[in-house]
Write a structure and sequence with these properties.
This protein is an alpha/beta fold. 64% of the residues lie in helices and 15% in strands. The radius of gyration is 30 Å and the shape is elongated. Bound molecules: zinc ion (2 copies).
């Protein structure tokens, strides 16, 4: 593997090219190994009259099939964006990972069925030295496959490869059980393969369901990694501390690794020059694009940074909101705070961010906050609240 990596993965490749080169390399290796294992085990199964070994061969053959799916997935994911798919093809990798997971589940059902048949109708096997050799080799090869799929899957952050690693590991265990029951059958004439097969089948089923979940989540849209969010917030808040005083409403859309679309609201002083601020915001968008490789759209929100009256009202509202949050058991925060005065009424506008897990309804929260504000600041305050969701947690 080390030598193959040196030949196929070139230093001058960018991350996207490296990912697809690794994916193709692992896919081809997977097909070669699995076809080899499957052929030797079909042979072993036939000469020993063992249904378990033959089933294990079928297992490896379906792995070769799923490797082909992985390979096609990587190939398609590395395709450039086109008019029909302007966000690229990165998510195909998640879809093909899901197909692999479904294949694992189907395989498990198959294995359980044939094992039950063997419990009902046990058969005598003739396990020769060559059969044991083939099984031991198979276990070693599968362990090695699990090892490199996992290592490279982690390296290039590929759910499809990590799903393959889990599958290789469960194959390792499956073949080990087949080996043990073959030995027990040979030396003690007790035929346990059926029972062991059911256990292994359930184990593989569990691995398949886990892998399916892991590939379906990015397809549905999951929150970005906390480190990714922290890095964006860090860049935004340190870019121009005088003119960009805050950030909120950050949304990250993930169209596959290296293809993120980000939108966020930047808080700017309300007395700033619109043209100058827009210039700064454009520079910030470019900086985020260069450092994070993402497409960024930034919306500007004016905030009062100097008006003492607004700042003190904001402070009071902030305290009220976080107090209500603490009472309910969640962390609430506010942003886009604005005050508008006309005649005898003062209008307060602001957004409240509440976590998804919060069970209290939006209207109840709005009513609670309004009531508390009127108690503390007076009845002539009109409160306009917009409830926001947090898309980063
Ligand atoms: Zn905003
Ligand atoms: Zn612009």
């Amino acid at each position: 593997m080390g030598i193959l990596e040196k030949i196929f993965i070139k230093e001058e490749m960018n991350m996207t090219e490296k990912r697809s080169a690794y994916g193709i390399l692992c896919g081809i290796l997977g097909i070669i190994f699995n076809v080899f294992l499957s052929a030797t085990k079909f042979f072993a199964g036939t000469i020993s009259n063992s249904i378990a070994i033959t089933a294990d061969a079928v297992n490896n053959l379906s792995d070769a099939g799923s490797s082909i799916v992985t390979l096609v997935g990587f190939k398609m994911a590395s395709q450039k964006a086109d008019p029909d798919h302007p966000f690229g093809h990165g998510r195909i990798e998640y879809a093909s990972g899901f197909v692999v997971a479904i294949l694992i589940i189907l395989m498990a059902i198959e294995l359980i069925q044939s094992s039950i048949a063997k419990i009902i109708n046990p058969e005598k096997q003739t396990v020769s030295a060559i059969v044991i050799c083939i099984l031991v080799t198979s276990i070693l090869v599968k362990c090695y496959m699990a090892f490199y799929n996992r290592r490279i899957g982690k390296k290039i952050n590929s759910p499809a490869l990590e799903a393959n690693a889990i599958d290789s590991l469960s194959d390792c265990v499956a073949t080990s059980v087949v080996l043990i029951t073959s030995l027990v059958g040979r030396f003690y004439h007790i035929y346990l393969d059926g029972y062991a097969g059911v256990l292994v089948g359930i184990f593989i089923m569990y691995a398949g369901i886990t892998a399916a979940k892991e590939t379906i989540n990015p397809l549905l849209g999951q929150p970005p990694e906390p480190e990714y969010v922290d890095k964006i917030i860090d860049i935004v808040t340190h870019f121009d501390e005088e003119n960009i005083v805050g950030i909120h409403d950050l949304i990250v859309h993930d169209y596959g690794p290296g293809r993120q679309i980000v939108s966020l609201h930047a808080e700017v002083p309300e007395d700033g020059n619109m043209v100058e601020l827009h210039e700064i915001i454009d520079d910030l968008e470019n900086k985020l694009n260069e450092e994070m490789g993402c497409q960024v759209t930034i919306h500007m929100d004016p905030v009062f940074t100097k008006n003492e009256y607004v700042l003190s009202v904001k402070k009071t509202v902030n305290e009220i909101v976080s107090e209500i949050g603490t009472d309910i058991g969640f962390k609430f925060s506010i942003h886009d705070f604005r005050v508008m005065k006309n005649n005898n009424t003062t209008k307060l506008f602001f957004d409240v961010v509440i976590p998804y897990k919060c069970v209290v309804s939006d209207s109840q929260i709005k009513a609670l906050i309004t009531q508390k504000i009127n108690e503390k600041l007076g009845d002539d305050y009109l409160v306009v609240i917009h409830v926001d969701m947090d898309f980063t947690k």
